[in-house]
Amino acid sequence: MSTERLRRIVEATRDAGEMSVAGLAALTGASEMTIRRDLEVLAAQGVLERYRGGARSLLLRGEEPPYALRATEGVAAKRRIAEAVAALLADGESVVLDSGTTCVAVARAVRHRRLTVVPLSLHAANVLVGAPALTLLFPGGAPRLGELALTGPLTEASLASLRFDTAVLGCCGLTAAHGVTGHDLADAAVKRAAMRSASRVIAVADSPKFTRTALAVVTPVSDLDVVVTDTDAPAAEVAALEAAGVVVRQV
């Protein structure tokens, strides 16, 4: 199953509101039988609703694709980014680890390290539970459906009561002009709380994030210390980040 084809189906149905099987087959170059199977997968993830001969989107314009779909995208790049982040952390550090698929990759990369980690999603927490050398602390809060990111006043209060060496920050969009942005307002507030409690902020973003700006502003790029991305990140954006004083590591 092609992740890129699924993404095109999600985007086309979201932009148009609904699409026919024949229209999606023409758009993607896949057979109608393949499109029907793809639609069943996406319907099971709550992305769209099937009807005879087509499907209608359940996503609003500007919403991010579901976690289950994003978790299959750019896996190799996210793994390299995660390993580079792990190399920037010293044993004994305290780290607040944001939500999102790239931050879950970071959780896998640091699982065997001697660190104190506060994960801001249950996906990352599940990776870190039982790690032998790692000290795991849980904040309070309510998990968002699907994303399982912890949000709300309990999460923000927990972060305000702690101080971290490093915050590893995920994002939905990252540009020099608009800074770090997110789709969810409550999640953006938690990201800002994590940054306020950290001495250093490392943002992780695979290259597609540099082409997107989401609704909620998290922070301008001048508040970031390091951005870790892949080698496909746009050169102009990388140069603009560096001009703003951000260290950019491409892996």
From N to C, what is the helix and strand string?
Answer: HEHHEEHHEHEHEEEHEEEHEEEHE
State the strand order across the main sheet. 6-5-4-9-12-14-15
Per the principal axes of the C-alpha atoms, what is the gross shape? globular
**Distance from first to last alpha carbon:** 27 Å
Number of strands: 15
Low-confidence stretches: none
- Main pleated-sheet profile: 7 strands, parallel
Helix content: 25-40%
Alpha-beta classification: alpha/beta
Radius of gyration of CA atoms, rounded to a whole number: 19 Å
Percent of residues in β-strands: 15-25%
Q: Assembly type of the shown chains? A: single chain
Overall average residue pLDDT = 93
Count of separate DSSP helical elements? 10
Protein name: Lactose phosphotransferase system repressor
Pfam families: DeoRC (PF00455), HTH_DeoR (PF08220)
Domain HTH deoR-type: 2-57
Function: Repressor of the lactose catabolism operon. Galactose-6-phosphate is the inducer.
